[in-house]
Give the backbone structure.
Amino acid sequence: MISNNLIPVKYTASVLIVDDLQSDTELIEAVFKSDDFRVFKSAHPVEAIDIFETSQPDIAIIDITRPDINGFQLCQIFKDRAGRRFFPVILIAAHSDRGSRIKGLESGADDFISSPFDPREFLARIRSLLRLKHLHDELEHSENIILTLAATLEVRDPHTQGHSTRVGEFSKEFGDYLGLSLQEQELLRKAGLLHDIGKIGLSKDLFLKPPPLTDEEMEIIKKHTIIGEQICKPLHSLREVLPAIRHHHERWDGNGFPDGLKGEDVPLLARILSIVDSFDAMFSERLYREGRTAFEVLEVMGEEKHLGQWDPRLLEHFIEMMNLTGHDLLGLGAGADVRPDEQKEPLLL
Ligand SMILES: [Fe+2]
């Protein structure tokens, strides 16, 4: 296993120092310059936010002892604006009392240093956080490559018409409707985008072929679930998405693939994904037939529920959601075939 110490901190790592006392800022700056950091300085929160946005420093050091700089609030603003990106923030205080430490952690700070500080220890902590940031950035970069690949493949293929992107967004909305956590909703969005990525390992002609397919062709198509799982498996950050990718063609009655899982043995995210996937596939136009209206699709899915295809309670919730917000969702997402005269009517009661 590679030691963290072997992962380089980039040579020109940049640091933003927010402190309104010139002498302190100069001291901290001297510490950084001795180690080849690029330094931005600011004594004003508004200016500091502007530097954060325009110069994108790698880390921020905020002095929380100055009454005219609300360091806790500034820390929170940096964290909010960084979003999913890891942006380390260190707070410096003359007296790191317990209350300030707790408040600092609550505002999202990654470390808390008492002033005066030992320059070597100070630098060691900075470098440690930058190594962590480097790992986060690398991970996000790798994940983004796979997500972008999935989206790009679709854009280039007129026959899928952005199906996976829609399934991702729609699944996330359904997860929200079901009361799932934000984290689970995000997993659903990624799972939707990636669920068919395994198709890149199979012949395109096979997926464009109108039914009926031979048994041999069906067996090949079924493999896209396992290939998709294998493509995403090396990425640790996608590990929670893997079950949804592998099992999005399982059925409630156990007659699906690739593992023939049954009922609640099929992971919840996969059950959600399979409903949205099928809805969008039927709702969208395909090569060999016209897309159906949302009403028609939900009617078909209602019949399939009785045949054991879907988790019955989940499908009821899906139909319920579509009746409440379906027109808005379809307007934003699938969009293709909602006739104007249907728009004020329930999709399916
Ligand atoms: Fe699929």
Residues 195-196, 224, 248-249 surround fe (ii) ion (CB under 6 Å).
